[in-house]
Design a protein that fits this description.
The protein is mainly alpha-helical and about 210 residues long. The chain folds into 3 domains: about 5-75, Orthogonal Bundle (Arc Repressor Mutant, subunit A); about 90-130; about 135-170 and about 180-209, no CATH class. The chain is about 45% helix and about 10% strand. It is built from 8 helices and 3 strands; from the N terminus they run ααβααββαααα. It has helices at about 5-10, 15-20, 30-35, 40-50, 100-125, 145-165, 170-175, 200-205, and strands at about 25-30, 55-65, 65-75. The two termini are about 35 Å apart.
Length: about 210
């Protein structure tokens, strides 16, 4: 999880993104240069920037005559830029609080990324498994009325489950193992899958809203 704005900026460079992808397996600047089609000196420049921000790390140094070859690898198998990196302009769920607002959904997703990033990092340090659960699926509605009815029934069902299992009283405070959990349920249109470019698809989806 990238939270530092400078590290986020460094990772978004297309060349550095390609280098990070290649460095899932350790490699030297010379090896990378052959893969990405750039001079070794140019690759070294990008590697130093990535290493400075903690996105790549040194694995070993190999001595070849009078030259020391540095072998590096990415510090993670994948990266996600946290909204913390853009804290001053990140969406705030408290600004919308409307269950039918697309902006509220987006701000909830933003908060989820931010909180899960911190939780994953904390669990890794503590060497503990993080308790989480998610459901991902698709549903096709015949009409807007059926979609609205589904949303209403889903809201009622979730509320009933929360009322059944939530304990915010003295019992929860006294229970040593009690832990508050966050629940987010979302429903949104799926993106249309076409052969058009991502920009064209996004424009078409917007025009059909």
């Amino acid at each position: 999880m990238i939270e530092d704005p400078a590290a986020a900026e460094a990772s978004l460079d297309p060349i550095r993104t390609r280098i990070l992808r290649e460095l899932v397996e350790p490699a030297s600047a010379t090896q990378l240069a052959a893969k990405v089609g750039l001079p070794r000196q140019k690759v070294n420049y990008h590697l130093k920037a990535l290493e400075r921000h903690g996105l790549v790390e040194l694995v070993e140094e190999r001595r070849k005559g009078n030259v020391t070859e540095r072998v590096l690898r990415a510090t993670a198998a994948s990266y996600l830029i946290s909204p913390v990196a853009l804290a001053s302009v990140a969406p705030d769920p408290r600004r919308f609080a409307d269950r039918f607002s697309a902006f509220w959904l987006l701000s909830l997703a933003s908060r989820t990324v931010q909180e899960m990033g911190k939780l994953i990092a904390g669990a890794a340090v503590a060497k503990k498994k993080l308790a989480s659960f998610a459901i991902d699926g698709e549903i096709t509605f015949r009409s807007a009325a059926e979609r609205a009815a589904f949303a209403e029934e889903l809201g009622v069902a979730v509320t009933q489950l929360v009322d059944k299992y939530h304990d915010g009283g003295a019992a929860a405070a006294a229970a040593g193992g009690a832990r508050k959990h966050r629940l987010v349920v979302v429903l949104h249109p799926a993106l249309k899958t076409t052969q058009a470019s991502p920009e064209q698809s996004a424009e078409k989806d917007h025009s059909n809203d």
